[in-house]
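--- STAGE predict ---
source: upstream dedup step, 1 unique chain passed
mode: sequence only
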Amino acid sequence: MEKPRQKSRRAANARCRYRKAKCSGTQPCESCNRRNVDCIFEDDRKILVSKEAFLGMKMRLAELEESIRVSSTEQACTQNLGAGNLEQPSEPSDDAVSTPVPILETAAPDERSQPPKEGFQSNPLVVPLRFLRDDENVARRRRPWLLLGPTSTWAFSRRVLNTLGERFVPEDNKAVPLAVDGEAYQFQYRRSTFEETPDLTGLPSHDYAIYMLNTVQFHLGQLFRLFDEEEFLHNLHEFYADAATKVQESPLWYVQFLLVLAFGEAFLTPIRNTHIAPGWGKYFTRAMSLMPDISALWPEPILAIEVLTMIALYLHSVDLRDTAYCYVLKRSLLTSVRTYKIGNAMRMALVEGYHGDLPLDQLGEKRVERCRSLWWTVYILDCKFSTLIGAPNSIRDEDITTSLWDPTVCSQRNAVLGMHARISQTMSRVQSTVYGVDKKLGDVLLPQRVGSVLHQVASLTQDLERLVATRIHSSTHSVSGVVARLTLFCHLCIIVTARPLVFALLRSHLSFLDDGKAPRALSSTVQALVQTCVDSASKTLKILASLRSQNLLHDFLPFDLDNVFSAAFILSLISGILPGIIINTQYRQMSNEILDTMIVRGNRVAEFRKRDLDRLDELIQPLLDLSQQRRQTCGLDAGAGETPQDYPTDISIINEPDVNFTLLGGRLVSVESEDELSFNLSECGLSFQQMVSAANQLDANEVLGAPVSEAVLAEDWLWGSL
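--- STAGE serialize ---
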C-alpha cells in the first residue's frame, strides 16, 4: 500500500520569524497579506560572517572601485586638506553662509573612513544622561546640576553649543547663560491666612471682566478646555452681584476668576517692562496667595483640576518650566513648599477616573462631557510640558480608555480638541519609541520606528486637511490661528524626531574633521529624513511669519516661541553640517523678525533664545569656512550650486525659487503676495506623499536590502555606499 504523500511545508518568511508569528507558508502569507506588507521568503543558504570581516571586505572593494573612478586631481585636492589644515580654520568669510555648496563631498580612497564608533551606536540625547553644572546657582543656593532632558529644545541647544564651543573655541568658550527658572521673571507672594478676608480691590468692572474672559477664550478656548464657559459666566454674574458672599461660598472659584484675569491681562496688555511680577502679574500672585492646601481641593475635583491646569500653563508661559511641571513657588514668608503642578492635575484626574469611559447613566451627559474635555486638555498640556523639559509622559496611551469625538458629527470645538489630542498622542509615540532608553540609532529597527512615526503624521495630515475642508473652512483664505497651531505641532513632531540623528551627524562630522578625513556620504534614507526635517522647520517659520503679519502671534504663551526657536536652531545647525542643503538663508532673518516682535512686546525669554541663535551662528561659521575651503581647493565653482542628482532637492520650501522672503516695511513678506500673508495648508502643511515616501524609505527591508534577521551591518542605513 502506497504511503500517503506528505504535504510540503515551506519555512516561515523573514517578518513572521522576527515577530515569532505563525506563518501560513503561502506567497504572500496570510499575516503579511493582512498587514499589507512585503512578504519575503529566503531561498538562499545563510552564510554568517563577523562584522569586522564584512567591513574589511566592503572597505577593500570600495578602495578598488574608488581607485579607478577618482581622478588624480581629486586625490591631490584631498591630500592638500590634511589634518593640520582642517584643524586650523580660516577666518570667517562674509559670503560663506550664502554660498551654495554640494551636500555630498568626495575624497580619495585613503582619506575615507568609517564613522566614529560612538556616533550611531546609541541615541546621543538619551544615553548617557548629561548634566550641566551651574556655578551661579550654587552661589544663590539653588540646585547646581541641571539635567539635559532628551526631548527638550532648551537642552538640545545647550548640547550643541557646548559641543561646538569645546571643538572650535576651547580657550574662549563663552559661557552660555542657562536661563533657568526665575531668570526671566520673579514672583513673590505670601499665603493668606484663614482669618484674612480675600482682597476684592483693584478688580476690573463687570463689562471689562467679560471682555477679558472673551479674550482668554479667543486665545485658549479652541485648543484647550480650561474651564466650562457657561458655568464660569454664571458664577461671574453672581460675583458682581454680591462679591463678598460669592467668595465666601466658593473661594476656589474666586482663584479661578483671578487666573482668568491674569491670562486676560497678559493677552491684552503684554508689554512687560520689568521682570518683577507685581507690575503686571498682580492677579496671578493674588490667586496664588489664596490657593488652599492640596487636601482642601478634593471636594470640588473638576474645579480643582481646572485651576491647577491654569496655574501650570501660566507658570510655563513665564518660563518657569520646571516649576510648572514639578512645583509652584516657595512662599517667601513660609518654609514649606506647595506642590501645584500639571502632575497634580493629571493625578487628580486619574484618581477621579477621567481617563476611563465614564458611565452616562450615573454621572449624566453634561458632567461626562466636561470631564472628557478636561481630561484631554490635561493630557495635551502634560505631553507638551514633558516634551519641552525632556521628561517622560505621565501616562501610557494604552491605559487611556476614554474616547475622542467623531469629527464628522461633533461640534467644531470638540473636533479641534480631538485633533489636538491625536497630535499629542503622536508626540507621545515619538517619546516612547525614538527616545526610548533601549532604542539605538544603529539598531535596524529604529528606521521602522521612525517610519511608523512618519506614517502616523501622514495619517494626521490627511485628517487635518479633511477637518479644515469640512469644519474650519473659510472663504476668505485668511490666517486661522487654530489650524496654524495644529500644523505647527505636527511639524514639531518631525523636528523632535530628527534631532537625535542631526546631533549624531554633528558629532560624526567633527570627528571626521579631527582625523583629517572628508565626511562620508549619507544614505538616501538619512538624506530623506534630514530633508523632511528641513522642510518642517522652514514651513514652521513661514506659518509663524503669517501669524505675525495678522497680529496672531502668541508672545505670552510658550509654544510659538518654542516653535520658532526649534525651527531656526535646527536649520542653522544643519546648514553647518550639510551646507548645500539650505540654499536660501532668509530663514535667519525670518526668525529674528519673529523674535524681535516678541521682545518688543516684553517677552524676556525671547531675548535669551535670540542670544542662543546668535551664538550658534558664531560657532558654525568654522564649519562653513572649512566646507568653502574644500570646494575652492578642489577647484569647484562656488556659485554653481551643484547638488548630487540622487539627493532630493524639491521638497524643501526654503529652496523653492517661487518663495522669496524679503523685508518690506519692517516685516518679512513673500514677494509673490505682498498684499497679504495668507495661510495655505497645502503650502505650509505636511505633504502626505512626502511623509509616506520618507516613511517607506525608512523600512528596514528596503534600506538594508535584506530581511531584518539577516542584517549584518546595523548602521548601513545611515551611510551611502563607499
